[in-house]
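Q: Structure tokens for this one, please.
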Amino acid sequence: MRTRLKIALELERLRRRNLKVLHPLRQLFWESTLRCNVSCRHCGSDCRSAVTTPDMPKEDFLHVIDTEILPHTDPHHLMIIISGGEPTMRHDLEEVGRELQKREFPWGMVTNGLALTPERFRALRQAGLLSLTVSLDGFEEDHNWMRGNKLSFEKAVQAIRLAAADKRLTWDVVTCVNRRNIAYLPRLREFLWETGVRNWRLFGIDPMGRAKSDPELLLTDGQFTRMLDFIAAEREAGRHVSYSCEGFLGDYEGRVRDHLYQCAAGISVASILIDGSISACTSIRGKYYQGNIYRDSFWQVWENGFRNYRNRSWMRRMEPCNTCKMWRWCEGNGMHLREQDGELMLCHLHRIVH
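A: Here is the predicted structure, written as tokens:
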């Protein structure tokens, strides 16, 4: 490993150690619905368009904001991300947005774009929408195959064009790289840039949810390395393409992201799930939930819980971490990659082909 990279990783380790002590809440996810208008092959939560779990009433979420979060945080320093399912399935999404806007919280959402008409987009912007991520997983045939809806590509591109025309919105496009689209990433980048995209995030699909039993979605180790090489080359050419935050990447650190690897789950990131569970990111398994807003104080949980997030030495005792020379900087990989028994589902570092 390069000397300069080691120094940078050491500085990042010290910064992260201090952040664990302070644990300032900087990002809050709200899993507002499990309903969805598509049926994605790779869905981690296995959402359906009709589910038995009802949406969380907006009053319950806003009560936590008012009584547990607002008294302890500066709203200008806490980003609220509304997730799902598909957030636009909620007809009261604009109402929630306006309430957050009144309290001066910046808020954003991730969408597949299917229901994001020009009228809905304008309404959400008027309700304070400041950040938007649109999912696009390839050209039309492959994107629609992935999403299970023949209109998905058309509507996602429409959503991208709406975002591109709004010069005050912070937005990006995220792509799940899989065996069907990895061959044409350069052409896809050209298409996206012509459409107005200037921030593009890529990630490989993890073996969870529906993707666990769908081998067409999972990259081989060679393809995973190829994706990282593509990102590094794009960044060297001055284009803002990046790999998602998950996974320590060894010598690729400093080359494929705007920051060095970090898992901020439970350190500066929390989530409120559809049933009220208090977690970190929404992909983390139930064993690692820290409480529930319907019986616990969210702020007390945030201050005094999340111990297995902020002290990850327990991961060091498990394979493959117990023999890994990179533990000092990786600290066991992302929490969302841990099974209920603590076993590491996937090690990104071990996938890199040299």
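A few notes: The longest strand covers residues 170-177. Strands lie at 27-31, 79-83, 107-111, 129-135, 170-177, 200-204, 241-243, 269-272, 277-279, 291-292.
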